[in-house]
Amino acid sequence: MTGLLDVRGVVVTFPAPGAGPRRRRVHALSGVDLSMRRGQTHGLVGESGSGKSTLARCVLGLQRPDEGSVVFDGTEIVGLRGKALREVRRRIQPVFQDPLGSLDPRWTVGRSVRESLDAFGVGSALDRERRVKELLDLVGLSPDHADRHPSQLSGGQRQRVGIAAALASGPDLIVADEPVSALDVSVQAQILNLVSRLRRDLGVAVLFVSHDLGVVEHVSQEVSVMYLGRIVETGSREELFAEPVHPYTRALLDAIPVPEPDARLVHVPLPGDIPSPIDPPRGCRFHPRCSLRVDACSRERPPLRPVTAAHHVACPVALQARSQAGTAPVEH
Amino acid sequence: MSERAGRNGGGAVLELHDLSVRIPVSGGRWVEAVGGVTLTVGSAEIVGLVGESGCGKSTLGGAIMGLLPGGSRVAGEVLLRGQDLRGLAEEDYRRIRGDDIALVSQDPSASLDPTFPVGAQVAEAIRNHRDVSRRAARERAVELLRVVGIPDPGARYADPPHRFSGGMKQRVVIAAALANDPAVLIADEPTTALDVTIQAQILHLLRDLTVRSGTGVLLITHDLGVVAQVCDRVAVMYAGQVVEQGTVREVFAHPSHPYTRALLESQPAAHHRSGDLPVIPGRVPDLSEPPAGCRFAARCPRAHDRCAAPPPEIRTAGGGRVSCWLHHDTAREAR
Amino acid sequence: MNHRLRFVLRRLVLTIPVLLVMSVFIFLIIRLVPGDPVRTMLGFRATPAAVTQVRAQLHLDDPLWAQYRDWIAGVLHGDFGEDFVSKAPLGELLAQRIPVTLELTLLSMILAVVAGVPLGVRAAVGGRWARRLTEGFVVFGVSVPDFWLGIMLVLLFAGTLTWLPPSGYIPFTDDPAGNLQYILLPVLTLAAAETAYIIRTTRGSMLGVLGRPFIVYLRAKGTRERSIVYGHALRNAAAPIATVVGIQFGVLLGGAIVVETLFALPGVGRLIVTAINQRNYPVVQAGLFVVATLFIVVSLITDLVVGFIDPRVSDRGQS
Amino acid sequence: MTTTMTVTSGVRRARSAVGALPRSARAGAAILVVLAAVAVLAPLIAPHDPNAIDSARILAAPDLGHPFGSDALGRDVFSRTVFAFRTSLSIVFAAVAVASLVALPLGTLAGYFGGWVDQIISRPLDMLLVLPALLLAISLIAIVGPGSLVAALAIALIYLPILARVQRASALVVSQSGFVEGGRARGWSPLAVIRRHVVPNALGPLLVQAAILAGFAVQIEAALSFLGLGTQPPTPSLGLMLSDGRDVLTQAPWVEIFPGLAIAVVVLAFNLLGDGLRRHLDPQGVVS
Questions:
Q1: Cα dihedral sign, B248-B249-B255-B261
Q2: CA separation (Å) from D19 to A326, D16, D200, D201, D285?
Q3: How many domains does chain A have?
Q4: Does residue A307 lie in a domain region?
Q5: pLDDT band for position D85 (50/70/90)?
């Protein structure tokens, strides 16, 4: 059994902003399944309104799903409370997007890194101090950084502190929500290298949430693509990037700006706006923007179907076209 | 200044000569946010100005628009179709802004007045510079909204900005910016706040419209990928200076400056397979006391004693220019 | 303008529970007086018969909900009961008093807005002197207690210069010029602090708006500075200013109580104070009800104004 | 070694924080320190018994022994002002302290939890805002009867919804920070996160608002006493003094001028302090 995380049928809705007699709801997640293996980095990619951050919060136990289950290492975490919840929390730790906002400005770096050690009462005070220095060393900071305040650090250093704080309790899973999107390219590379190293050296699994397919491709072994509250395609990095099947995945790959001499933008890869998650389209949520659209798309929700054992896609039309062609329609 | 690398003929519409900007900071000190930039933009040409945060690229845009924070000092020349904009009286500058030079800035939600109908904000750009009736301005604004791809522009003219998506708002901003067929458009991170599929739409639209109207674009961005997608030429900025410029094809295929190379290599999208990404060690120098020599020397893997002196600007084989001592040698050997 | 119509209707509907809560609150005042309110009103020497009679007259022996129902039904027909001391019908008394309070507070508010908004704009965009002068006035206006300012104005204009009467009132319908003479000092007294607040709010929200990115974008479009300040920035700043004006109207109504007492103006505020001192509870109740209703109506109007100025407000609650 | 260094740096930071306050805020703080000393040491500072009637000095003009002159009963206005200050500041301090201490937990819980917790805390507090502030105070006095304690309670009641709103807004902003979610994910209970992260980071605006409101509380207290609804004679009170002085305004303006100036100075000092603190403690602009 190598499963670490098993998300099944998770639904999350929020009341739409504003007040009114008939308050409508934002459909953040509408039946999402996701599996992760131990020691693996799983990239979760999508644009705004895709629900990727909400899914991350469900896994962290910070958002309670309306429906569905989140099983972590054999334990259902939805509805978990008290001691059992704390034990799961010790093993699932977050890294947030904004490295400044994720550190208490009044606390020293050392105290922030120590926060989970204090919470779980790990070792003596002296042990914790020693552990903080080890952790800072692990993420490439010097022990003196422990006495500084976040305002005295650069963005990249802050994100290192955020990662050290997440590692403190010895987690099996780190949920990183857009950990590099606030950083410059050259700093981003440092943090991505650090994330890759953690997986390699410590065997920590990472759920890596990002809007940037390039970044996700670099760090992940498995990738899931989300659109308006649903996963449209999931698979191993190799298969998904080499043979994207879902029309949305393909458009997304087309749209990514790649810094290569011949990467000119020749056509608009995907027309139209992303619909509002308050009133999402029926059937396949992508159908209003889709070039492969057939009548059935606006009626039935397409289920995730296997392309290969390690690659699933929620588009029967593309799947059928692919099997008829015999090979994958590789285009880019 | 006849050396232009743009493909679309036409003369240079915007020329910057040795442009420097100093901005006052606390304690009576000054930061040299831009240090001696020379750059040209031709008509119907898109020039990418790329660099990381704090490199001075947005300050440069502000200097061209004449919209820097109070107390800033600008030296050098900003020539718009040969006319120096520096030292222009405020009212004269105002007449040029939005007419000959226009701006599209980063966050479309922040660019539009939240209490005004979007259409009126486009019409305002017209009436600021053309003596036309309200009705005529309105008709032209509706037409512009249609051109930038707002569905049902007549009906949506009166809607306030918050009823539009981010991508649609940026279309409105572009409509207002291009309302008077400007010679130059400064696009400062125009797609950074947008989703990637929407970004592609906006970049496509921007390129389409400006090439058609012959507007020269200075596209300021942190994203080398965006430069590759739409720009003709690129200038790479580091610590207030342009370290390398040339055609996109040349610079991306054969980066000459060590910084350009490092920047390209640290992009995960460019670096397809796993393994560590190359990183640039160290930090950007403090621009209140910039180093006398090459500003990148402290972080450069190929730094040398000579780098303590300002690097010379060398013509590259592909027709671009690079400011680096390394190429001084190659150039001399070639001679 | 479907959006706006729906906004107005929604806001009107939302006022109903507020009025309800307020009326219950004020209704309960007499009933919350510790001990027997009638004993408190009549004094210790009242005969048991008199107490019983007054209790019956005020319906204090009915169930609470029935008392409220009867009272509110009366109020809706303009029947507020009787003055406990003079036995006069309160409806007529209030009809004489309300115009005085309205004149005082509305004139003060208008003066404060007319003076405060332009000064606040100057303070935000003007030079150093404009800023210093207005800041000085704001500090003065905010710090000085209104009733003391009133007394000092009396000392100066009525005592020393004898230009204006120190106190009293003539209805506008009797003698417009005389009315203005009597109301001038009270209005100045009440408007001073108000003006200071409006200057401060205007300056603050103007500076906030002028620092926002869309102002840079307006400059980049070549919009004239005057149009940026008065056309765009002031319009954006107007919603917070209007909100503050609405809230401050409550402060004005409170100030009116003091100022009416000070200048012997026959308004609702003075009526309430006198009635409290006489333990004349029916009058206290009626007076508070009138002032609170005024406040709620003005709040409603400001909310509607804010909604019309800022479409984001009127769109809230709809997609 | 390290601790000493930390302490010194802490002191240095505190000192530089005071130094970084605008000059006006430092002036406000200085005035308040002096006024607080006057209030505490009133019996030592006042040259005369504030209630001692001296028929020889009825409406006597200010002189060296009686710097503010004497009132209609020949009482020393300076001594009365000093003692009235004491009364006034005690009422104000009690009122603002009570309101802040109640508003802090209510606002924090409403802001942090939101949803129904927010509803059951905020809705009843909003009802207090249905009446204009002074009217609310007067209603309470109409029920309970006049007096210093009632005035303090009435002021606390007026300020409670305002302070709770500020604290709610501030706690809401802080609660959206990553470090608050992080604290939960790092294994702390909601209440521990509130204590460790939310309250320390959200307290600033409440302090600013309390400082500003304290100034106006002096005005409200004086207004209530002026109307005869606050502090009752013979206790010296600024509002009562102003009310009494009205009758002798033209003969003895000093009876009127000095207590009024005293009020203005307190309000001014609190305002200067509050505005100065705002820049440091309320960067988000939660206080309106």
A1: positive
A2: 76, 5, 22, 21, 22
A3: 1
A4: yes
A5: confident
CB contact under 8 A, B102 and C220: yes
Residue A289 in any domain: the answer is: yes
- Using CA coordinates, name the residue in chain C closest to A277: C319
Amino acid at B64: I
Strand partners, B104: B187
Would residue B149 be called left, alpha or beta, if left means φ above 0 and alpha means ψ between -120 and 50 degrees? Answer: left
Q: What integer pLDDT is reported at residue C140 of this predicted model?
A: 85
Rounded to 10 deg, the angle between the C64-76 and C2-32 helix axes is 130
Other CB atoms closer than 10 Å to residue C95's CB: what's the count? 11
What average pLDDT does this structure show over C182-203?
92
Asked whether residue A331 is assigned to any structural domain, the reply reads: yes
CATH of region C3-25+93-318? 1.10.3720.10
Buried b (16+ CB within 10 A) or exposed e, A62-97: bbebeebebbbbeeebbebeeeebbebbbebbbbbb
Q: What is the pLDDT of residue B215?
A: 95
By the 8 A CB rule, do B191 and B159 touch?
A: no
Q: A106: which chain D residues are within 8 Å (Cβ-Cβ)? A: 200-201
Model-level pTM? Answer: 0.86
The letter for the amino acid at C44 is F
**Using omega within 30 degrees of 0 as the cis cutoff, is the peptide bond preceding B182 cis?**
no
The domains of chain B, with CATH numbers, are: 12-95+184-288 (3.40.50.300), 101-179 (no CATH)
For chain A, list the strands marked E by DSSP: 3-15, 25-37, 41-45, 67-72, 75-76, 92-95, 173-177, 205-210, 222-227, 230-236, 305-308, 311-313
Structure tokens at D274: 């509050």
The secondary element (H helix, E strand) that includes residue D208 is helix D199-226
Structure tokens at C242: 């209007």
Q: What is the ipTM of this complex?
A: 0.84
Determine the distance from the C-alpha atom of residue D32 to the mean position of all C-alpha atoms in its chain, rounded to a whole number. Answer: 11
- Region A5-17 average pLDDT: 91
Which among A47, A184, A199, A254 is the top mutation candidate for probing chain B, defined by the most B β-carbons within 10 Å of its own β-carbon?
A184
**pLDDT above 70 as % of chain B:** 93
Coil, strand or helix at D157 = helix
- DSSP secondary-structure letter at C160? I
Token readout for D151 is 């005035």
Query: If interface means Cβ-Cβ distance under 8 Å, which residues of chain D face chain A?
Result: 2, 6, 177-179, 181-188, 192, 197, 200-201
CATH superfamily placement of domain D21-50+70-285: MetI-like (1.10.3720.10)
Residue C28 has pLDDT above 90, yes or no: no
| pLDDT, tens only, A266-290 | 888 899 989 988 889 999 999 999 9
CA angle B128, B132, B135 (to 5 degrees): 110
Per-residue pLDDT, A248 = 96
Name which of A186, A187, A211 to mutate to probe chain B: the one with the most chain B Cβ atoms within 10 A of its Cβ. A186
For the beta sheet containing B29-42, the strands, ordered from the edge strand earlier in sequence to the opposite edge, are: B29-42, B12-25, B73-80, B83-84
Phi, psi of B115 (to 5 degrees): -100, 0
Q: How far is A88 from chain B (nearest CA, A)?
A: 30
Q: Which two tokens stand for residue A40?
A: 């693996």
pLDDT band at B271 (very low <50, low <70, confident <90, very high): low
Average pLDDT over residues C226-248: 92
Go through B243-252 and write b for each residue having 16 or more CB atoms within 10 A of its CB, e for each that does not. Answer: bbbbbbbbbb
Is A touching C (3+ C-beta pairs, cut-off 8 A)?
A: yes
pLDDT for position C247: 87
- Distance (Å, whole) CA C28 – CA A291: 68
Three-state SS annotation for C205-258: HHHHHHCCHHHHHHHHCCCCHHHHHHHHHHHHHHHHHHHHHHHHHHHHHHHHHH
